[in-house]
Amino acid sequence: MAQRMHLAEAYEAGAAWLAGCSAHPELVRTIWNTDTLAPIVSGERWLVAESRVSVGMPAVMRIREEQRGPVLADGQMDKAWWLVPLDAAEELADVRQLVMHPAGWSMRCPPMNSYVDRRFWLWRPDGSGRLTNPAVLAAAFGPGGYRLAAEASA
Question: How far is it, in rounded angstroms, from Cα 64 to Cα 67?
Fold first, then answer.
């Protein structure tokens, strides 16, 4: 029961943060209550880097859990959307497996604990505002994966 309560609190914290990224958080919540995807526009707090799921899954596994930001996935479309900081576009511009969406791009998001229209949170927002560092993401898509500086020099 305590585990279930902890998960509910985590889902709520992530939902509050993500809905708060919208100009109309109460509308996002209303849409989610009908188990429908809610459009949330990028550019205020984060941008979106898009990859194919089939390419992104190996990259995800190369990133430590504490370094991962939210990742939304659609397996049927073979797409994954990574929430990254507002200044990530330049750093990720040369990563051929990623497409950067500009500020103002609308991402259709399911509720935290639901699978809706083939979309689900591979890694949910946790309420902290943590995003995936673009240097870590770029390195994870590289041939050797991301390694901490200490690991690289060892």
Answer: 5
Tell me if 25 sits within 8 A of 19, measured CB to CB. Answer: yes
Tell me how many degrees the CA angle 133-131-55 measures, rounded to the nearest 5.
Answer: 70
Residue 92: which residues within 8 A CB-CB, separation 6 or more?
A: 49, 84, 98, 100, 134, 137, 138
The pair of structure tokens assigned to 151 is 């690991």
Contacts of residue 110, defined as CB under 8 A and 6 or more positions apart, other chains included, come to 32, 37, 38, 72, 116, 117, 119, 120, 121
- What is the value of pTM for the model shown? 0.87
Q: Are 71 and 121 in contact (CB under 8 A)?
A: yes
Distance CA 124, CA 115 (A): 12
Give the H or E element holding residue 19: helix 2-20
| Structure letter (DSSP) for residue 104 | T
The pLDDT tens digits of the residues spanning 23-47 come to 999 999 999 999 999 999 999 999 9
